[in-house]
Design a protein that fits this description.
271 residues, alpha+beta, 4-stranded mixed beta sheet, elongated
Amino acid sequence: MLIGMTAFAQMSLRLKDIQLNLEMRSVNHRFLDFSIHLPEGFAAVEDIIKGQLKNKLNRGRVTVNLVIAKMHPKVIVDYELADKYVRNLKHLNQRLGLHDNLSLNQIVNLEGVLKIEKAHINPEFIQAMKSLTAKVLDKFIHARQKEGRALTLDILRRIRIIGSESAKIRRAMEALSRKKRQGLSDDEYGVFLKNTDIAEELTRLSYHLKNFSGIIHKGGPCGKELDFIAQEIQREANTISAKAQSAQASSSVVKIKSAVEQIREQVQNVE
């Protein structure tokens, strides 16, 4: 079963007086790429998150957002700093000959006088972060697997279309060959067979289809490999198109090319 690259997952965890909110989302990408957004002062958490993601994911552009909220934030007053502000401002007031009075509202709005106690990193926080990341990642992978199942069904349906149209091409060329045999001389018929022989192309096409289906059922990261095989299927279809001299065969080639194009679009979303 295939694994998709588009997913979203979010969970929260309460740790004493703080709440951790972790969100993951991803889109398709050729490689595994991270964009991790953390609150100021929590850069050390990035390696923890990256390590867990690398162990579980293979491809995709993954965006992670961590929001930390204190449920009952403690306000800290820097009295020493406030005293310094007041003394210096009073001195400035006297020096300039002003008569303005300082208000409490003005003082508390001065930088650094009031601070909100922030969460900090400790062993308990690290353990909670690992646990939360693991849970969100499991949910995230489940979403990728769900997308992968849908992609698997769609791609296999298109593979069956290609197989059906290949069989139609074979029958159409056999019918055309019988018809030409009756109306051409031996030499002319020999030239016709040489120019329209697509037996090798159909054999390779059949092999690619079986290989493609086998890889899908094996599962695991295989998007790049499937895209390569789809290109090979497209190449065989182009060769058949150039050789076939049957309107019915040409119609089937058009359907094959359309299915291959749609498959290649889909495998771009496969891990």
